[in-house]
Specification:
The protein has about 325 residues and is α+β, with helices and mostly antiparallel strands. It has one domain. It contains 9 helices and 10 strands. Strand 6 and strand 7 (about 235) form a beta hairpin.
Length: about 325
């Protein structure tokens, strides 16, 4: 019985391996890569004619408008509500006085679980700037390392909308707010806003934030974008660039190449998560209750300070009805 089983395995798998070997020989002898390369390049050129997708142009324009409203709204709210940022790490807190939660890890993550040293924050601490290389078209040739200074760096969201067919120079899109750095002092008269006006600004800012993220998610379903697996570098296009800017490997004497993966909404529009103080929490958040406090994106926390109501999908991380200190055991 065992001998018959052995013969059957030899007949089946032996024939399969022989067939596989013949197929490999067939493809290896008949396929000429030199002739195949021009065909592939020609197909890529034809593919470029299908972009931009006309149905996505209104979506890209809506993204630019929402981004402008978001920047102006956050700049206005920053004049009325203080924002603090840590001097040694990216931690952010919306309030007059920072918390005492030990989550600071310093510049190079050498000192862990330290108390933050708070300084006054600005717009870039709430809306994290993510920049990328600006390409002339979606199917531009790959950028080499020695070409990294030949291309401008613009916000990744603007580059995505540009490739999607939106015109950032259009008057109705207000292209004056392209830059990642925006002077918050350029907004005048915010000190005299009434509570109702601040609530209106906060609600508009919240809607702009939700619109921006949802529409960027739609664009990423049509237009490819890449993000480095080990750092925050983003590239909008079908393939990443070859600029050696990733410094993840400490043993290298120079910066290495990026490891590209598919980008998501959080990579282009990162939500800066911040601790929030609830009515049942102490005036200053302490480290002992860090497992019970709620959290929220800093943009939405700033909007709640202005009177906006956060959507219910964020209630799970806000812990609205949660405890503020560990429950006492009986």
């Amino acid at each position: 019985m065992a001998f018959r089983k052995k013969l059957w395995q030899i007949a089946v798998f032996g024939g399969f391996s022989e067939c596989l070997e013949n197929s490999r020989r067939l493809y290896s002898t008949r396929v000429d890569l030199k002739k195949l390369r021009p065909m592939i390049l020609k197909r890529i050129e034809k593919r470029a004619k299908d972009y931009p997708v006309r149905a996505m142009i209104p979506v890209a324009e809506e993204v630019l408008r929402a981004r402008n409203v978001l920047i102006q709204g956050v700049s206005t709210l920053l004049q009325s509500f203080p924002v603090l940022t840590c001097k040694f790490c990216p931690e952010v807190f919306v309030g007059e006085k920072g918390h005492l939660i030990r989550t600071c890890y310093g510049y190079k993550r050498r000192a862990k679980n330290q108390v933050h040293e708070w300084v006054r924050g600005g717009l870039n601490d709430i809306l994290v700037p993510v920049e990328t290389f600006h390409l002339s078209n979606m199917f531009h040739s790959v950028i080499n390392h020695n070409q990294r200074f030949d291309f401008d760096r613009i916000p990744a969201v603007v580059e995505l909308c540009w490739q999607a067919g939106a015109d950032p120079y259009a008057e109705n899109l207000n292209s004056s707010s392209w830059k990642s750095e925006v002077d918050t002092n350029s907004v005048h008269g915010t000190e005299s806003l009434s509570p109702d006006e601040l609530t209106f600004v906060a609600n508009s800012t919240l809607r702009a934030w939700e619109t921006l993220r949802s529409r960027v998610e739609k664009l990423l379903l049509v237009y490819p974008a890449k993000v480095c697996k080990y750092c925050s570098e983003v590239h909008v296009g079908p393939s990443g660039h070859k600029a050696r800017l990733c410094g993840v490997f400490k043993y290298e004497s120079w910066r290495g190449a990026h490891f590209w993966t598919k980008a998501k909404v959080d990579d282009l529009v990162p939500p800066k998560i911040a601790w929030r103080r609830r009515p049942q929490d102490p005036l200053v958040l302490v480290n002992e209750g860090r497992g019970y406090y709620g959290r929220l994106p800093a943009v939405l926390e700033l909007c709640t300070q202005g009177g906006a109501i956060v959507p219910t999908k964020y209630h799970c991380i806000m812990k609205v009805q949660g405890l503020s200190t560990p429950a006492l055991t009986q």
